[in-house]
Amino acid sequence: MGSDHCTSSFRDASYKILPYCYEEPIGLDAATKAASDPSFKPRPRIFDEFALTDRVSVITGASRGIGLDIALALGEAGSRAVYCIDIPDQPSEDWKISRDYIRKMDNGSRLEYVQADVRNQQEIWDKVEDIANKEGRMDVCVANAGILRFGTYCLDWTAEQFQEASLRDVMDVNTNGALFTAQAAGRQMKRFGQPGSIIMTASISGHIVNKGCEGLPYNTSKSAVLQMTRSMACELGPYNIRVNSISPGYILTKLTSMMLVDEPELVDSWAQSNPMGRIGSPRELRGLVTWLASDASSFCTGSDILITAGHHAW
Ligand SMILES: NC(=O)c1ccc[n+]([C@@H]2O[C@H](COP(=O)([O-])OP(=O)(O)OC[C@H]3O[C@@H](n4cnc5c(N)ncnc54)[C@H](O)[C@@H]3O)[C@@H](O)[C@H]2O)c1
């Protein structure tokens, strides 16, 4: 963004176009310029649109699993600083080697670790505000922290158990924590008057029920994230802050592999739950999240992107 390359024909047509103009023309604008200006050198621009150069990112649940792979992707895309927020006092060994890997890339990016619990609204607001003050901006937020609990039949939940899930457990982390994280970043994006992209990690379980799993609070928590995404997108759209969610299918991480310890045969039924016949890797979410974080998705908000190997189609 910066100088104006919206075509005059669009301007004259009084269309309501987002004030969203690239430093250099792209697509047909570039082709049109190349046709009339011999000094204009055509070059591929599509990957530039995915670049996060100089942007500041925060991501929760990023000491491991999906969050850590997303942090690496944002760093590789050039995000100046990727703040990885998670519950342990110290990050995992995987996080440390990831930090070193990005450092060695020498692309102007770095990974930072911040301890915080997404269930604590004031803590997450304060820590994200500190980051924004230090960096002078806030551009990308991935509300990714989540926990999984399966195993209570729907008719057996007592009020106490369900309130526990809502106040201290699965719904507290997955739903309340996602809200508090998105609020924390959205407040800073609005304060700095910059465009921003907030991405919520929802789940296939917010759309369908995992066959054979009694996961009422988890499924409810992820469904709530889908509608929270749409609500926030509508309220933040006027500030050019976009809010979208991703809904992965089965991805092999600690969260899922813990279930396989007792029931290793589950992996086959998970793989057979989609037409591609396999489960996914956190690496397969890199492209999607980078797209959503970047200007390449500038007209996308209030959307959920299913990334499930077709699980949702069956
Ligand atoms: N793995 C899958 O198949 C799958 C599928 C769909 C959605 N998801 C979602 O993706 C997200 C990441 O899951 P994952 O598979 O990487 O799991 P994971 O358990 O490997 O990682 C989750 C991370 O969140 C952190 N976390 C948990 N509670 C927290 C809290 N209160 N505050 C801050 N951090 C906290 C954990 O410490 C951990 O590092 C979750 O929201 C999960 O529901 C996972």
Summarize the structure in words:
Helices cover 42% and strands 12% of the residues. The chain has 11 helices and 7 strands. The chain has helices spanning 8-12, 27-36, 65-76, 93-105, 121-135, 159-167, 170-192, 216-236, 254-262, 266-271, 286-293, and strands at 56-60, 81-86, 110-115, 140-143, 196-201, 241-248, 304-307. It folds into 2 domains: 1-43, no CATH class; 51-313, Rossmann fold, CATH 3.40.50. Strands 3-2-1-4-5-6-7 form a 7-stranded parallel sheet, sandwiched between helices. Helix 3 (65-76) runs parallel beside helix 4 and helix 7 (170-192) packs parallel to helix 8. The chain is an alpha/beta fold. Nicotinamide-adenine-dinucleotide is lined by residues 60-61, 63-67, 86-87, 117-119, 144-147, 173, 177, 201, 203-204, 248, 250-251, 253-256. Nicotinamide-adenine-dinucleotide (NAD) binds next to helix 3, helix 7 and helix 9.
